[in-house]
Amino acid sequence: xxxxxxxxxxxxxxxxxxxxxxxxxxxxxxxxxxxxxxxxxxxxxxxxxxxxxxxxxxxxxxxxxxxxxxxxxxxxxxxxxxxxxxxxxxxxxxxxxxxxxxxxxxxxxxxxxxxxxxxxxxxxxxxxxxxxxxxxxxxxxxxxxxxxxxxxxxxxxxxxxxxxxxxxxxxxxxxxxxxxxxxxxxxxxxxxxxxxxxxxxxxxxxxxxxxxxxxxxxxxxxx
Length: 223
What we know:
By secondary structure, the protein is of the alpha/beta class. The chain has helices at residues 17-27, 33-49, 54-65, 70-85, 91-102, 115-124, 155-167, 188-191, 204-213; strands at 3-6, 106-114, 129-137, 143-148, 178-182, 196-200, 217-218. It is globular, with a radius of gyration of 17 Å. The mean pLDDT is 94.
């Protein structure tokens, strides 16, 4: 059995689910449009530039989740899935996942986006294991606005992947082949330790790094 790890946004989806969730909340009229859009776009630009403070961003995004009771959040997310996520799932992506599933590989999505937003997306993609930023929940399942543990961004993805594998009684070295598919230079720490890094729909910085190191590039979509 091999290990296949996948980033989510702009790798398995041609969108950034975190940013789109924020835009969806604006369209739904449940957040202040001007203020929220300004901050959401600023954080997204920082992420693209590799300058994002993940704790600051997660406090912002989880704080917005904490404004709603869990029942309302689940209603909003179901609508988000129908309107935004499901139409964005491409057959090329499902075929790539199926290739690894048919090979019997252990598959996980490793994303910097929080678990509340991404868990239903992973399920829609047919991926059981999800490594994501963990919101704190209260006894009633409501989001408190706090982050549990450390962010799953950059080197944090590597830390959380090691911890997840340890819970399964495994290490990266236990697999003959380890794959990681990602679009972003932010993921170079994890890409650098697998046996088969794949620059997938890569941004310019990752494309240059992949070329320099002889990593293959895969273009599932270019938008």
